[in-house]
Amino acid sequence: MFRDAAIIAGKDLRLEARSRVVISQVAPFALLVLVLFAFALDPDSGALSRAASGLFWVAVLFSGVLAIQRSVAVEGADGNRDALRLTGLDPGGIFVGKAVAVALELLVLEVVLGAGVAILYNATEDGVNSPSSVGLLICAALLATAGIAAASSIYGAIAAGLRVRETLLPLLLLPVLAPVLIGATRAFEAALDGKAGEGWPWVAWLALFAIIYAAVGLATFGSLLEES
Questions:
Q1: What's the total number of domains in the chain?
Q2: Residue 220 and residue 102: Cα distance in Å, rounded?
Q3: Who has greater pLDDT, 192 or 149?
Q4: How far is CA 190 from the centre of its chain?
Q5: Tens-digit pLDDT profile for residues 89-108
Q6: Please, are residues 206 and 188 in contact by the beta-carbon 8 Å criterion?
Q7: Which domain holds residue 104?
Q8: Can you tell me the distance from the alpha carbon of 142 to that of 46, in angstroms, rounded to the nearest whole number?
Q9: Measured between alpha carbons, how far is 106 from 102 in angstroms, rounded to an integer?
Q10: Which of 29, 58, 102, 125 is surrounded by the most beta carbons within 10 Å?
Q11: Number of CB atoms found within 10 A of residue 71's CB
Q12: How many CB atoms lie under 10 A from the CB of residue 132?
């Protein structure tokens, strides 16, 4: 399974490296969302710095939808999905490979967005300088990204066979990712405020979400691939 996952992840990442859609389109879109939030909220009132964590993860979720739509579109072109079914690759490996590729793309976007939030929203606080807060930020980001990637891969496969997948996928996916938005936002807020102890329960929440969707994907992706 892990060999097949490496094959699929390598394929998706090579396609992204050649097309550069994430860097040339998704990342500018995400940064534009941050800029629009900056215009919508009054920076002098401190609203931007207080809402920085939530706005960051909203931008990440929007970017994740675009990334998974790109992945679904690539598989649907020229009968690629039928060819993928005929390769004999393990369905669990296909799921893991696609989730890993999406997760790596999202991590790149999160680094870019993190810099944008620090510059535009002045969201740096003294609490982030502590090792516990830095560890909280890293763990929350990794687990939230894993959960987003796993859920996105599942719902991408569900929407793949539908004619209106471009509009239906966000409607299916964004409500499901609401727990990730809540948990990651609360964990980031605790880290930025220097209260790391209050953020670790939310990290456990994110880990539970990621484990559940990883297990569901491993168990059902073969059937979803056949139905799509």
A1: 1
A2: 19
A3: 149
A4: 21
A5: 788 888 898 889 889 989 98
A6: no
A7: 2-227
A8: 28
A9: 6
A10: 102
A11: 24
A12: 16
What would the pLDDT profile of 4-23 be if each residue is shown by its tens digit?
888 888 888 887 888 777 77
Which tokens in the block code for residue 220?
Answer: 């059902």
Contact 56, 118 (CB under 8 A): no
The token duo for 98 is 């696609």
Report the phi/psi class of residue 90: left, alpha or beta, with left for phi > 0 and alpha for psi in -120 to 50.
beta
- Tens digit of pLDDT for each residue in 203-212? 999 999 999 9
Q: How many CB atoms lie within 10 A of CB 69?
A: 19
CA 158 vs CA 2, 8, 65, 133: distances in Å: 23, 18, 14, 37
pLDDT tens digit sequence for 161-194: 666 666 778 888 889 999 999 999 999 988 888 7
Which helix H or strand E contains 207, and what residues bound it? helix 196-227
b/e map of 142-168 (b: 16 or more CB within 10 Å)?
bbbbbbbbbbbbbbbbbbbeeeebeee
